[in-house]
Amino acid sequence: MKLITRNTDYAVRALCYIAEQKQEVISGDQLVKSLEMPRSFLRKILQTLNKEGFLNSSKGKGGGFALAVSAGEITLTDVMKIFQGPIRLSEHKFKKSDCPYISDCLLKKKIDEIEKEVIAKLKAITISSILKKGDKGK
Amino acid sequence: MKLITRNTDYAVRALCYIAEQKQEVISGDQLVKSLEMPRSFLRKILQTLNKEGFLNSSKGKGGGFALAVSAGEITLTDVMKIFQGPIRLSEHKFKKSDCPYISDCLLKKKIDEIEKEVIAKLKAITISSILKKGDKGK
DNA sequence: ACAAAATGATACAATTATAGTATCATATTA
DNA sequence: TAATATGATACTATAATTGTATCATTTTGT
Ligand code: FES
Ligand code: FES
């Protein structure tokens, strides 16, 4: 029953780390060392973030990853969507034949409401909002 | 990324159904037929609800399950706890060595806040609050 | 040219959670 | 004592999560 899976979490932490460094470009290995995450797993995550346009990558010596978007513009929901698909708290949506309440289901309505609020709040969390004060904005 | 798993969902719907009927005692088979859920799965769920004190059961002809607690006192979080364990949106709690931010992690704080709010809202959803108007209170 | 340093692509594997099944035992009622 | 119901419990299947591992490609510096 996790809302945030580990690859999302790793991704967020990696983005935070990159955003905080003075250098723009950070190599995967540096991230692995600094954040102590499984190497191959993080590499895959970084590749995905690159493909999705949140990171730019460069090969060869001195290469690595840099933010492609400012830290203030990357939201938690962005990252979640990439690694976990569309956000949905419940799958309470049964075939009509399955459920006598479906046409006017209060449970569904209530859950949907909560879902909306949660998403709104997650959307308000950006990478820069997670960084310690003083580092923000970058 | 589901907040509510199917056994929780089935349990809630079963509780709703039982609460709505005029008879107090409803057999497992009647629930299976009416709600069109997998028989064995629902039986297991009903047994669990019984063990946890939300249903009373009686064997033999005319037996079945009845609410042990009034519908207004069974919350969604109650049911979730039974079938999904303690509610936790994120496992963002790494070993100290893993994460430079852990001592003062804004992400953790923000997630925890959201978590609290979600739990509060889920707690406000009771079985009777899900039933159609007019059936309430039973 | 060539080696070193990096990422890109991709296939594979392990673990865990979810979802569901099946069987036999036990109690109750008619 | 047969029928009806739940109790206990072990088993299986599927899917999601969490990784690993390998080889290819690009870039840089000597
Ligand atoms: S759609 Fe069936 S109870 Fe909500
Ligand atoms: S505990 Fe590490 S970023 Fe939150």
TrEMBL record, chains A, B:
Q: Name one Pfam family in it.
A: Rrf2
- Residues spanning the membrane: none
Gene Ontology molecular function: DNA-binding transcription factor activity
Listed Gene3D superfamilies: Winged helix-like DNA-binding domain superfamily/Winged helix DNA-binding domain
Superkingdom is Bacteria
InterPro entries reported in the protein's UniProt record? Tscrpt_reg_Rrf2, WH-like_DNA-bd_sf, WH_DNA-bd_sf
The record's GO CC annotations read: cytosol
Q: Which PANTHER family match?
A: HTH-TYPE TRANSCRIPTIONAL REGULATOR YWGB-RELATED, WINGED HELIX-TURN-HELIX TRANSCRIPTIONAL REGULATOR, RRF2 FAMILY
Query: What name has this protein been given in UniProt?
Result: Rrf2 family transcriptional regulator
Specify the species: Candidatus Sediminicultor quintus
Q: What is the lineage of its organism?
A: Bacteria, Pseudomonadati, Atribacterota, Candidatus Phoenicimicrobiia, Candidatus Pheonicimicrobiales
